[in-house]
Amino acid sequence: MSKFSCIVAVCENRGIGINGDLPWKLKQELQYFSKTTKKVTDSSKRNAIIMGRKTYFGVPESKRPLPERLNIVLTRNASAYSFPSDVLVCNSLQEALHKLDSTDSGKDIENIWVVGGNSVYMEAMDSERCHRVYLTEIKEKFDCDAFFPEMPKSFVLIENDGGISNEVQEENGIQYEYKIFENKH
Asked: Contact, 106 vs 100, CB < 8 A?
C-alpha cells in the first residue's frame, strides 16, 4: 500500500478556486505544480494524479488529460460524462488507491498525487496513507467558491526539500510561499 501526497495552492481565506478555475494567474506556480507532480527518480515510471470531476473539467480542454501522468478522475456518475480512454475513472479515492495497489494501472506508478478539489482533499487528509501536503500559501485574499479544508493536527510543517525554495515568491504583484506539511500520525 503506497503512500500519497496532496498538492494545493491556497489563498488567505483558504480559497482554492472559483467557477471551476483558479482565482489567480501565477504561471510560475503552475509550473511548480507541473514539475512536482511529474518528477520521478525512475525514468521508466510516471506519477498518478487523482482529482475530482470538477477539478478535471476545470483544466482547460486543450490541456487535459494532464500530460505525462496517469489522470484518475473521481465521480459517482461516470456515465454522465465523457472521458478519454487513457483517463482512469473511479467512484472514490479508496477505489482509485485500490486499483493502483492491485492492478496493472499501478505497476508503472512512482508517486501518487491528490490535486483537488475540496472533498477529495478532505478524504485524502483523513487517510493514514496521506504522507505530505505540498501547500503553496498565497499571501492575499481572493473571491472563491471552493475552499481547502482544515488540515488535521497530525500534519506539521517541515523543511522544504528537493530544491523547493524557502523564499517568498512574487508574480504579478502576488506573493506566495511553498510549504510542506508531513503527517506525523
From this structure: yes
Burial of 36 (0-12, 13-18, 19+ CB in 10 A): middle
Task: Copy the grid coordinates of residue 161.
Answer: 526539500
| Nearest-angstrom CA–CA distance, 178 and 185 | 22
Is 128 an active-site residue?
Answer: no
* Active-site residue, from 26, 29, 100, 135: 29
β-strand partners of 132: 5, 182
**pTM here?**
0.96
pLDDT digits (tens, 9 = 90+) for 71-90: 999 999 999 999 999 999 99
Taking a C-beta distance cutoff of 8 angstroms, is the pair 100, 109 a contact? yes
Residue 29 annotated as catalytic: yes
Q: Tell me how long the chain is.
A: 185
